[in-house]
Design brief:
The chain is an alpha/beta fold. It has 2 domains: about 200 residues, 3-Layer(aba) Sandwich (Rossmann fold), CATH 3.40.50.720; about 110 residues, UDP-galactose 4-epimerase, domain 1 (Alpha-Beta Complex). Strand 1, helix 1 and strand 2 form a beta-alpha-beta unit. It is globular and about 55 Å long. The chain starts with a strand and ends with a helix.
């Protein structure tokens, strides 16, 4: 049975992943960790929790030793839009934090899962069905840290034999936790405003396709890859994974199937639009499917139905 430390456990992915993996591996076997925040989520009360700033390697090591951790799921990072406003901090957190995690993992013989992103690609990358192995010249600090992180994880595997694994996440959509400063955030906020107001003003322009995934599929992908037979992993780090690709008008059309009077308009944010324009429209995830059996369960319409059903309950709006 794995003993897992999750860094960045209060973020969009982490807050749901901790609950998910505690169901899979047992509550006492999954340690949530995060830098200090004002309002501590329930997951910190429902199982093991430690304050860990990933910029401090000793705090990581202390948590690993205390709980006899053998697997680190490293999620702590600044996202794309925030990273553009704070590039120095994004580098220090994203790269410094990953380096510290890998060093601790090397010392205590832990496996490491850390996600990359579609942000690891750039304008010169093939936009349609982006290959697993292709040009990676991102134009954001977030993207730069993700490419460097992919290479660093590969280095630690080849140089030290460290069991490193990861996926390139597309935009993630969830009803449970609001996103934290990403370019794909519109695809979450649109559901909230559709239910609350019947309308939404998108900061991403019509016709802008981006790969997306519903959070249940994302959580499942982490466990699937963590449990995969290492002898079958050719790529090991930064697998493309995909579930759906759409632009705002298609998302609005899906919402209108359940909220017929929904209205979508636009007030485009130039910074996030430029970021979105630099990313692929869709990813080729055939390597993940072949090497560890990846397959998503949700498409756009099944996700929309579940999002609306769950949010109506969460927001207490019928």
């Amino acid at each position: 049975m794995k003993k897992i430390l999750v860094t960045g456990a209060f973020g969009q992915i982490g807050s749901e992943l901790v609950a998910y993996t505690r169901k899979v591996y047992g509550t006492d076997n999954v340690v949530a960790s995060n830098i200090i925040v004002k309002n501590t989520p329930k997951i910190a009360e429902e199982g093991p929790y430690e304050i860990v700033d990933v910029q401090d390697p000793q705090q990581i090591a202390d948590a690993v030793k205390k709980y006899k951790v053998d697997t680190i799921i490293h999620l702590a990072a600044l996202l794309s839009a925030v990273g553009e406003t704070k590039p120095s901090l994004a580098w220090n957190v994203n790269m410094g934090g990953l380096f510290n995690v890998l060093e601790v993992a090397r010392e205590y013989n832990c496996s490491v899962f850390t996600p990359s992103s579609i942000a690891a690609f750039g304008p010169s990358t093939p936009a349609e069905k982006t290959p697993q192995d292709t040009i990676q010249r991102p134009t954001t600090m977030y993207g730069v840290t993700k490419v460097a992180g992919e290479l660093l994880c590969d280095y630690y595997h080849k140089r030290y034999g460290l069991d490193t694994r990861g996926v390139r996440f597309p935009g993630l959509i969830s009803y449970a936790t609001l996103p934290g400063g990403g370019t794909t955030d519109y695809a979450v906020h649109i559901y909230y405003d559709a239910i609350r107001k019947g309308s939404y003003t998108s900061f991403i322009d019509k016709g802008t396709y981006m790969d997306m995934m519903y959070m249940p599929d994302a959580l499942n992908s982490i466990v699937m890859l963590a449990e995969a037979d290492p002898s079958k992993l050719i790529h090991r780090n930064a697998f493309n994974i995909s579930a759906m690709s759409f632009e705002p008008e298609q998302l609005a059309a899906s919402i209108k199937k359940y909220i017929p009077n929904f209205v979508l308009d636009y007030d485009v944010d130039p910074i996030r639009q430029d970021i979105a324009n630099s990313w692929p429209n869709s990813l080729d995830d055939s390597a993940a499917r072949a090497e560890w059996g990846w397959s998503p369960k949700y498409n756009l319409d099944t996700m929309t139905k579940d999002m609306i059903d769950k949010l109506r309950i969460k927001l207490d709006i019928k």
